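Friendly challenge for the regulars: who can give me the structure tokens for this chain first? No prize, just bragging rights.
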Amino acid sequence: MSAHVDPETLADASGPSRILMVDHLAACPACREAVARFDPSLLFSLLSRAPIPERILDAVSAEVSHAATPAPARGGAAWEAWPGTRRAVAAAVAAGAVLTGLAAWMSRGPAPVLLPVAAVPAAAAVEVTPDAAISQVVDMTVGDTQVVMVYNGKLSL
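First reply, four minutes later:
Bragging rights claimed.
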């Protein structure tokens, strides 16, 4: 059994065993190199050992508390004073939607005439044109659809 950290075990570890492995990783250059080769993102676990200043923790706590506090009701006292106002606004919005839909429906004009499409026999063709360079142009045509691609087999990504 090795005293070094196995990167795969670190990736799956949690709790106290992970904390011990991260502590070892911080002190052992050989383990950091092995972990970086396995999965460089595992090195972010070393950030868990960095102290966080008290002022940052207080600021984060204040922001979380502020975000968790419910917002006051919109509209204020005037909105609450006249309960019928909500119904009137809702009715006005609904009437506007109905009138807009009616106007659009009335201005649509006659239905379009659909003409039959002549039956075109399905045809497929592929043409490969090698160029003097490494790339090739591939021209594929199926019916009325044509796709042209430039292909480079020696390109390594």
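The chain has a mean pLDDT of 75. The longest strand covers residues 124-130. Your move, everyone else.
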